[in-house]
Amino acid sequence: MTAILVKIILRNIRGDYWVNNLIAVVARMTAKLKILGKDIPRSVELTLQSSADARIRISQRRRQIERFALLSPNQLGEDIGEESSRLPVVGEAVKYFIDMERLHDLTTGMLIGVLTNFTVADPTATTTNDFESSVAMYASLITGEQALLYQGRDGSIGAASKANIARTFTAGFHVCLEAWGAIQSEPAPSAQDWTSIEWDWSMVEPGQKDRFQTKKGDLKLSSMRYILMATVPFFMISGDSAAQISDMIDIMIFTTSRLSSAPLRLIKQPRATCKGILQTSTYVHNRLKRRAGGDNCPLSETYLLQSRAGSAACDPRSLTDTVGTLGRKNRNSSDLSADPEKTKLLMAAAKKQSDQWIITDNAIVVPYKCYAWGWIAISTILVFGGLAVGSSTGDRILGVDPFNISIFCWALAGFALAVAKAVRVENWPWSSFL
Predict the structure, then answer these.
(1) pTM higher than 0.90
(2) What is the per-residue pLDDT for 386?
(3) Element containing residue 272 per DSSP (H, E)
(4) What pLDDT score was predicted for residue 210?
């Protein structure tokens, strides 16, 4: 767990001062945990003894403070001089100890948060061997922002869209890919219970797809060693963990002076779409039976509702049939969800058009000047064109009044203008249209 934390931090920042201090803090915590885990009864005894010594020192310190409070100002001179001589040196030394204490507190809180992801905090949640946890990050086609969604094993759901959290999650997911790629796949789990993990990584920008390869994979594990190797990195970037690591990096940045000899530098992360799903065998066996005919589904399968709603009106089918047909969609389908590239282009065009709107507190002004003046120009051409045809024809055609052609052109111009106004600006007054 501590090694994964250091890897995620190194994927986000570069800076000797903070990186070295973080590694030192993590190394001390790891050593303490190993010592505590080697002999737990002895560790408990030493912990209780240390807590008793700490209480004694605190009580002595309180008595000393009370003694100073009872002395008069004239009696404080000599005692205060002795105490002030024992004060630590201010400056870089104080900053170092403050930074180390801050790193220790942040790391401890973050590791405790990761451990809570392995537990079921909600008593009404699923059992320990019947759960799914999933995480997904996608890019908005309209604003371009990256959004992170998470579902815990107890059913809790969270979301985040801050850029620093997305950056931290992207770096952490890349570390997870390395950890999952190093796990040896088990061909056929011999045990009845197993845990599966599935992941998907792809670039958002078309230019980055050539530089970064799309990565997909899945593992089905029954060995507890491999399960821990797969789940620990997953929970390191799930839930509050990504936000806590992001806050830790922000604190490092804000407390580092620009004049520092070891400045902190952020590492730019690629814009990627990530998905990770962690499931148990009990959950997989019971999920279709549990949700048959209902709208209750986990975060990783929210697309089932959209597919079911689109097909229920014309061809009602069971949930199993709906799931089976999801993989048979092709890019020739008229549904935009089958062609993400086409959807992205359409959404980009819609965003470009909406950026031209003028939005105020009272109204939304849509610029249609080109449209309006274009139809006015066409109507003007019809008016003067009809007049020119009537004047030029004269009496050349026997039995035909040439000005009837002019009247027809004028009526056509008025009709075209009325239709043009009705199509786009039917509720606007003529003064706004003209």
Answers:
(1) no
(2) 79
(3) strand 272-280
(4) 67
